[in-house]
Amino acid sequence: MRVCFRSSVQPELMAEYKQRHSAVWPEMLSALKNAGWSNYSLFLAPDGQLIGYLECEDYEAAQARMAVTEVNARWQAEMATLFADSDVPPDQGFEVIEEVFNLEDQLAAAGVVTDATSAAHIDKDSAHEYQKEQA
After folding, report:
1. Are 17 and 78 in contact (CB under 8 A)?
2. Which has fewest Cβ within 10 Å: 31, 52, 74, 76?
3. Do 86 and 72 meet the contact criterion of CB atoms below 8 Å apart?
4. How many CA atoms lie within 13 Å of 28's alpha carbon, on the beta-carbon side?
5. What pLDDT does 123 receive?
6. Could you report the per-residue pLDDT of 30-47, keeping only the tens digit for each?
7. Which residues are designated catalytic?
């Protein structure tokens, strides 16, 4: 399953948030992977809005596996003061956002087969047509 969530970092602490995520503790990285978190990314907007994305088999189970690790408790305590709502551990304050569209799912449902060469050709033709219209 794909999971997207949001939270808020205090705008004045965004540089520190970025710095801490530039070299996450190796044991935290291992714990996330072992708990089933894959393809995990965080995106931080200029206003402090944090968007996270991950893939896992079962999000609640993956969260539960992280909740019992010592490294996660330490990490959440370290990060808590950076978030707008620091009364709740950061990983418990995530607001999960509903997925309403996924390209691959819809292509598969429609039975559409694509390959990189045809996509590149289409993009090139579309760009060429757009340039002619603008001239």
Report:
1. no
2. 74
3. no
4. 16
5. 54
6. 999 999 999 999 999 999
7. 21
